[in-house]
Write a structure and sequence with these properties.
By secondary structure, the chain is of the alpha+beta class. The chain has three helices and six strands, in the order E-H-H-E-E-E-E-H-E. A six-stranded antiparallel beta sheet has the order 2-5-4-3-1-6.
């Protein structure tokens, strides 16, 4: 197993597609809480990657997130994840989203380490590399793509 990366971050510029109105979680044009959570999770996935062996992945199992301040369209939001606890099969991260150095959201996310193929079978999806039948895609607004960085502070 690789040496774990203690932290990672992802950054986005908030677009209309990231807003509470677009996501259906409210009727205002600021960063929606579901998008804030997705951004925090993206940072945890990135931070967890070096802790995994081939064939492993992580899945979210528990989230605590306080969304503290609004972030308007056009603002830059950075999500940082810091590994604070590790057991054989669980990784727990403290997460923090900031805009111009101000806290936008804070919380904790726990991810379980799983075998990707076994998890897929249990979830009813074919293993990686298996051809899939075409299925209709649900219509969903295109959210902004995060820019990622990792920090190896271990």
């Amino acid at each position: 197993m690789g040496e774990p990366i203690d932290s990672a971050s992802v950054t986005i510029t908030v677009t209309e597609a990231d807003t509470a109105r677009a996501l259906g979680s409210g009727d205002v044009d600021v960063l929606g809480t579901p998008r804030a959570l997705a951004l925090a999770e993206a940072a945890t996935v990135r931070a967890a990657a070096a802790s995994l062996t081939p064939g492993q992945t992580t899945v979210g199992t528990h989230v605590e997130l306080a969304h503290l301040l609004p972030s308007p369209v056009g603002s830059t939001v950075r999500a940082e994840a810091q590994l604070v606890d590790r057991t054989a099969r669980r990784l727990t991260f403290e997460v923090r989203l900031t805009q111009d150095g101000r806290p936008v959201a804070t919380g904790r996310i726990t991810r379980a380490i799983v075998d990707r193929d076994r998890f897929g079978v249990r979830a009813g999806t074919p293993p990686a590399g298996t051809p899939q039948a075409s299925t209709p895609q649900a219509s969903c607004p295109q959210a902004s793509t995060p820019q990622a960085s990792t920090d190896d502070r271990g």
